[in-house]
Amino acid sequence: MTGSCNGCGACCAVVVLKREHKVAGRIARSEGQELPADYLWALDDLQEITYAEALVAHPYLVPADDALTYNRCRHFDYVSRRCTNYDRRPDVCRAFPWYDDGPNATRIEDLPWCGFWPDVPVWRAASDGLAELVA
Ligand code: SF4
Ligand code: SF4
Asked: pTM score > 0.70 for this model?
C-alpha cells in the first residue's frame, strides 16, 4: 500500500520553512536576480507568524526551532481546507513530503493524519520514536 494525499490540509494550515530559504530569497531579490517559483512563493505568498499563532492552526507541531519559520499561505482556505491555487502551486508543494529523498518519518512527524504515512517503513518510524503513529 502506498501513501497519497487525503486532503487533510494540515501541511498547508501552517507552512514550516527553513529560515535560510527565506533569507536566500530576500538576498537574491535585493540583488535583482530572477527568482524561481518556489522562492517567489516563499517571499510573496507566505506570511510569517509566531510559533504560538501556528500552534492554534496546527496543534501537533513539533517544538519550536529558531532555524525554522512558521507561515500562513495566502492560497490556503481555512474553511474548505483546500488550496485555492492548486493547479499553479509551486513545485515545493507538489513534491511534498518526500521530494527526491524517499520516505522519511521526520518529514511528517507533526502530521499524524497525513496520508503518506503508509510509505514510511515501520522500522524507520520506530527508530525515530514515532512507531505509535503508524501502529
Ligand atoms: S500554495 Fe497551495 S499547496 Fe502550497 S502551501 Fe499554499 S495552499 Fe498549500
Ligand atoms: S498533511 Fe499529508 S495528507 Fe494532509 S494535505 Fe498535507 S500531504 Fe496531504
From this structure: yes
